[in-house]
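Quick one, probably user error.
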């Protein structure tokens, strides 16, 4: 049962003190566009995930595990926005203003234009927004906000949906961008009604492992930019610091001349990344060997193991197999297939790969190596990071420019690729 609001007013949001004008249908040619200037936080990774900055009047939903750094990032972003005498408002429904002040001092955040409001009532929050007239607003979090019109508790489906609807209406009518912080369920999805993700303009997920200092801000919906972008941050005592060269960060502790380790080139959004893929193949005395994968699809690993057994005569019948992407990042694209093949064979034969070689390519069920997209960008990233060789699909070699400093080796089957062991 979902509680609904029955109102005799003309519109459900006419109680808001807004310059509301009744509109009429217009032809597409009659609509005039002004210069839409995005607000820049000067946090490069954050602005890039948003599509080049904050669009005025947009509503951005940010979700993530507790303690991952959502409030920290948004407080730092508001501090940057307030640098040019722009008023910004941080509404905290979970902390008092003194607790927010303590966190701000730890992060080095201090601004005369950053206003803090500790409030849970939506009507009071909207009144505060209209009084301050900020350039940007953060609601932390939407699950703690309630409307007095509804008798249900904060965080319920009706409260989250109605509160979000009024805030979205406010953003569209005033042009004030609003950030909504959303709690997540144990499965990792935004808590509350799924329709919330459809209502907002942008949905960002903050990901990361507590055992690693890095955090990844991933865009899963963006009406004003790409939905494949990621931003990489490092959690420090002074807050979140953006990582300008993620490839160097992920390869910083890579061991050299060891079996089972291979560097793969993947694409995250518009950015090429070089990451280390590790595999461990060891003999087991148990009847059923273990198959474990972290950072790559388990079913994909099982499929590639079967291809190796069939096409390369490698028997994994009595072998435990563990595959891990170092650094905790997750890779879902098929270009990682050849890297998994090489890492498994390297560990099984106990023969290390050339530490200066990068591997990427898709592998089919018959053992063929298929071409993948954006090979040129992957090769350039490998060259920039100091690698000298690249093992890639044969059909991709002809698409590369001749100005590459790498020795590009094209293969069309896993038998030829395994020859480099």
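Nope, works fine. Designed sequence:
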């Amino acid at each position: 049962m979902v509680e609904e609001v029955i109102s005799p007013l003309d519109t459900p949001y006419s109680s808001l003190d807004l310059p509301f004008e009744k509109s009429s249908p217009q032809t597409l040619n009659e609509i005039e566009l002004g210069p839409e200037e995005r607000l820049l936080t000067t946090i490069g990774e954050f602005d890039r995930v948003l599509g080049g900055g904050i669009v005025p009047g947009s509503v951005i939903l940010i979700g993530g595990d507790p303690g991952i750094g959502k409030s920290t990032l948004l407080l730092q972003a508001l501090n940057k926005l307030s640098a040019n005498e722009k008023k910004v408002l941080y509404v905290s429904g979970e902390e008092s203003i003194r607790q927010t002040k303590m966190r701000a001092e730890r992060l080095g955040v201090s601004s005369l234009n950053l206003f803090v409001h500790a409030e849970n009532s939506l009507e009071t929050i909207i009144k505060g927004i209209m009084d301050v007239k900020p350039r940007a607003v953060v609601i932390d979090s939407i699950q703690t906000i309630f409307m007095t019109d509804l008798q249900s508790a904060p965080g319920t489906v009706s409260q989250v949906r109605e509160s979000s609807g009024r805030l979205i209406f406010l953003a569209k009518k005033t042009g004030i961008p609003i950030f909504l912080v959303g709690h997540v369920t144990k499965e990792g999805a935004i808590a509350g009604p799924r329709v919330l993700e459809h209502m907002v303009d942008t949905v960002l997920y903050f990901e990361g492992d507590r055992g690693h200092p890095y955090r990844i801000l991933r865009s899963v919906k963006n009406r004003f930019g790409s939905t494949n972008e990621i931003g990489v941050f490092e959690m420090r005592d002074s807050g979140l610091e953006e990582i300008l060269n993620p490839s160097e960060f992920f390869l910083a502790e890579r061991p050299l001349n060891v079996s089972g380790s291979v560097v793969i080139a993947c694409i995250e959004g518009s950015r090429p990344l070089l990451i280390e893929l590790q595999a461990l193949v060891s003999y087991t005395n148990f009847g059923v060997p273990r198959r474990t994968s972290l950072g790559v699809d388990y079913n994909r690993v099982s499929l590639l193991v079967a291809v190796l057994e069939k096409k390369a005569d490698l028997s994994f019948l009595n072998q435990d197999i563990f595959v891990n992407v170092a650094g905790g990042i997750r890779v879902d694209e098929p270009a990682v297939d050849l890297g998994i093949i090489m890492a498994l064979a390297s560990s099984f034969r106990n023969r290390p790969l050339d530490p200066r070689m990068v591997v990427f390519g898709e592998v089919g069920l018959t053992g063929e190596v298929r071409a993948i997209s954006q090979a040129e960008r992957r090769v350039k990233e490998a060259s920039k990071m100091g690698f000298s060789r690249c093992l890639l699909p044969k059909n991709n070699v002809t698409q590369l420019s001749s100005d590459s400093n790498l020795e590009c080796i094209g293969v069309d089957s896993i038998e030829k690729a395994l020859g480099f062991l």
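The radius of gyration is 26 Å.
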